[in-house]
Design a protein that fits this description.
This protein has helices at residues 2-13, 95-107; strands at residues 24-32, 38-46, 52-63, 66-73, 77-79, 83-91, 111-123, 130-140, 149-150. The termini are far apart. The chain is an alpha+beta fold.
Length: 151
């Protein structure tokens, strides 16, 4: 009986599994500003079982198949385990992407987009930053009552 008790105690002492999973990045909202620039809210999702510090990201953005530009930020943002947060970035999009967004807004249609790039994060209690490749495709739709806003 003593050996079984020791084995049980040894199993309990290891604690929960600390897992670092690939994060995700997606657009939560894009606002077309009067000067033609875009304000993009990038949602960073931490799927890890530990908190992570999201140091920076560089994401190539395509809108309706048109290269729009690169969303970059260095938020230094701590995101808890299996949680998410939003980072605001600005972008001066390409002419083709501007036209695609204007067409979607004017016609009340959705706008397909793709994000592709890198997110750099440091797992909690670690000094080693890791690079994660991310890719995401989805659509944004005009927000009712909010001119120039796609969600």
């Amino acid at each position: 009986m003593g050996a079984a008790l020791l084995a049980t105690l040894a199993a309990c002492s290891s604690g929960p599994v600390r897992r670092v999973s690939e994060p995700a990045a997606r657009l939560q909202q894009v606002t077309v500003n009067a000067d033609g620039s875009w304000t993009a809210l990038v949602r960073i999702e931490n799927y890890s079982s530990i908190p992570m510090r999201f140091d920076r990201f560089s994401l190539a953005l395509e809108a309706a198949g048109q290269e729009a530009g690169t969303l970059q930020a260095s938020p230094g943002l701590d995101i808890g385990l299996e949680s998410a947060d939003v980072v605001e970035t600005r972008l001066v999009p390409s002419a083709g992407a501007k036209l695609a967004a204007a067409d979607a807004l004017a016609g009340g249609r959705s706008l397909g987009y793709a994000l592709r790039g890198e997110v750099f994060a440091t797992p909690d209690e670690s000094s080693k930053q890791r690079e994660f490749e991310v890719e995401h495709r989805s659509t944004l739709s005009p927000a009712p009552g909010l001119p120039g806003v796609l969600r």
